[in-house]
Design goal:
Rossmann fold, 10 helices, Archaeosine Trna-guanine Transglycosylase, Chain: A, domain 4, Transcription Regulator spoIIAA
Length: 395
Amino acid sequence: MRARIILKKHRQASVLRFHPWVFSGAIQSETEHLTDGAFVDIISDAGEYLASGHFASGSIAVRICSFAPVADEKELVETLIRRAYERRKTLGLTGRSETNAYRLFNAEGDGMPGLVIDWYNSVVVIQCHSAGVRRMRDVIVESLLRLYLGCVSAVIDRSPLDFQENETRESAPLGQCLYGTVHIGEICENGLTFAVDCMSGQKTGFFLDQRENRRLLERYAANQTVLNAFCYTGGFTVYALRGGAAWVHSVDISQVSLELAHENATRNFPNAEAAFTAADCLEYLKNLDRSYTLIVLDPPAFVKHRGALKGGIKGYESINFHALRQMPAGGILFTFSCSQFVDRTLFRDTITKAALHAGRQVRILHELRQAPCHPVSLYHPEGEYLKGYVLVVEG
């Protein structure tokens, strides 16, 4: 018989609203006998079934995978992955040559907290962010091989070494090959090509969540002098070049990332007007020695846990202040936060404070978010981790 977790009286409201997390303080029954990763049923104090999910001995005690009774956990995993694939098919992402990389499964947004799967032109990268998902890893791999039917060249696991609730989204340890042969692959995105290191790159190798935002930047890039700060492997750089930028300067603290950014730029535009500098981006922004008419600020998460919120907000304010104060009138700023603990309102307030400090008149042209292959459950707003704005400086 499956383990049951009984909630305290009047503590089932969030489950009835389809929020996928149950916190330990809501649980009435003893859980010491449960092992992390166990699949459990959640029961109200009145004995009614509410949901099923993976148990963990932490603040988030259960991550819900189903709000209907589950006969077989393996069948549930296969069904959720297949449904996620059908959503990407509806988005027009599957079977395309001009874009052959996308997120296949986005944790709570696709119905299984803790599971991330990215597709890179035949290479599949998975991340297990909970013990329950890790326990089902073999089932996940088998499901993927059946789903893509002979089209998978490798399956790589880039899971964190532990399952702390506040794990970062930006990095993971070196990959473990679970199937096939590993190589630094090449993907296409909107007709542009990029080298991707799925074994050791940030996230799972590429920032797939910025795909639509890169395309928007391309529309603004014509004749601009562009600074791509925190450039990583040069995604925004390559789109700016295709958009007709007069000159693009890419800056990142990682020499390894810069080398890949340079490779991505030259493979698409061999004679591009571009430069690449290894530097601390905040220090570089403080001491700009030339004027940029378009700046991209896409830093790693400055707030990786709630305790880092104050310092992280200071970081976001600082980089936006230094960018805004030196931009010419008419300049365009693409600015982002991928910190889950910084919501959209707080991020906007932080940018407003930076603009006031810089003494600039600034208007919002676009609000930006993660690409549609990173869906967010309506009942789990925490899943909207990527926030961004396109701003124009008018004076």
